[in-house]
Design brief:
- Helix 1 links the parallel strand 1 and strand 2.
- A four-stranded mixed beta sheet has the order 2-1-3-4, sandwiched between helices.
- It has a single domain, classed as Glutaredoxin.
- 34% of the residues lie in helices and 23% in strands.
- The longest helix has 17 residues.
- It starts with 18 loop residues before the first strand and ends with a helix.
């Protein structure tokens, strides 16, 4: 299945269904790496799409989230920051 062609600038294209989860982070962030692992596992288990944005690519994201990354959005609303609780993420997507 093709990636979403309407992804915002800086989004990592993700194969599969339209993203319900968005990870906002930046390269080299170890907490972002941990969050990405949890999000990828949950998304694969539940069959939901996810995307990733970097605060380095978007000044508005940098202004809003620089001190909170990684930030997890579910259906466009802030869900978690700094850490991703796997059980809480699964419940939010259920």
């Amino acid at each position: 299945m093709p990636s979403n062609p309407t992804s915002p600038a800086g989004a990592v294209p993700v194969e599969g269904p339209a993203p319900r989860i968005t990870l906002i982070g930046k390269p080299g962030c170890h907490l972002c790496d941990d969050a990405r692992t949890v999000i990828a596992r949950v998304a694969a288990d539940l069959g939901v799409g996810w995307s990733e944005l970097s605060i380095l690519d978007d000044p508005a994201l940098m202004d809003r989230y620089a001190e909170e990354i990684p930030v997890t959005l579910v259906d466009g609303r802030r869900h978690d920051y700094w850490r991703v609780d796997e059980a809480r993420l699964r419940a939010a997507l259920g």
